[in-house]
Amino acid sequence: MRFILGVLLSVVLYTFSFAETTTTELLDEAQNSIKAAFESGCPTLAPYEYYKAETYYYIAREETSKLNTKAGNAAAMKAIEWALKAMAKRYGEE
To answer: Who is most buried in 13, 22, 40, 83, counting CB within 10 A?
Structure first.
């Protein structure tokens, strides 16, 4: 399970290491992070972190649909951060 967290963290760091990451890529990465958290059982074992990640993802989609890409990107990054926190808490690595 630590391997999964390591892979997710490396993907996130790789994604954010380039300055020209598109909003669509950030939204896709946020969605994938939330999906991974869901599949690992975070809604029941780390509900606060999981649902906070989900909420940030919805905010990111809403802001992006209004063409506010800076706020959408920031919310997508927060969604990824909280999804990773949920997985860390789920596996006891707070």
So the answer is: 83
**DSSP state letter for 22:** -
Instruction: Say how many domains are in the chain.
Output: 1
Q: What is the pTM of this model?
A: 0.78
Q: In angstroms, what CA-CA distances link 77 with 29, 44, 45, 53, 85?
A: 9, 23, 22, 10, 12
Q: Which domain holds residue 71?
A: 2-90
Task: Give the C-alpha separation, 45 to 47, whole Å.
Answer: 6
